[in-house]
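Module 6 notes. Inverse folding takes a fixed backbone as the condition and produces residue identities as the prediction. Think of it as a translation problem where the source language is geometry and the target language is the twenty amino acids. Below is one complete input and output pair. Work through it position by position during the lab.
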């Protein structure tokens, strides 16, 4: 049990570091890949809502401190996303093949809009195009 939690934490930590160091500079058709969100989907679907929320918060905190942006913004978005994905994984049967694909599609859109909403609420001047792509 503890070994599984350590493995999942290591996956999220490495995904956060790769996201910050490599993938933030990579642009494909104006948008960038979000490896951390994909790793969070996988961990949350397998481990549940509580671990998804805790893992999302810790991984978001790593990203926030490395980016030197608004501290806590990514943490809040990934905490909510990890909880929602974990709840979806708990209420959906494990034999459903579409669960990871639906989770990635829905959470990608909701996390982008959530981040844009939080930037708007704290008064940051940010382009919607940069946040949503």
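Target side of the pair, the amino acids:
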């Amino acid at each position: 049990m503890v070994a599984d939690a350590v493995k999942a934490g290591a996956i999220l930590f490495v995904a956060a570091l790769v996201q910050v160091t490599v993938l933030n500079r990579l642009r494909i058709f104006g948008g960038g890949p979000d490896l951390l969100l994909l790793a969070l989907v996988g961990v949350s679907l397998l481990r549940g809502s509580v671990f998804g929320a805790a893992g999302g918060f810790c991984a978001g905190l790593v990203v926030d401190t490395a980016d030197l942006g608004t501290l806590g913004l990514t943490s809040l978005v990934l905490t909510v996303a990890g909880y929602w994905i974990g709840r979806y994984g708990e209420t959906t049967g494990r034999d459903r093949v579409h669960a990871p694909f639906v989770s990635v599609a829905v959470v990608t859109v909701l996390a982008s809009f959530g981040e844009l909403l939080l930037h708007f609420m704290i008064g940051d001047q940010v382009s919607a195009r940069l946040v949503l792509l």
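Reference fact for the lab report: The two ends are 37 Å apart (CA to CA).
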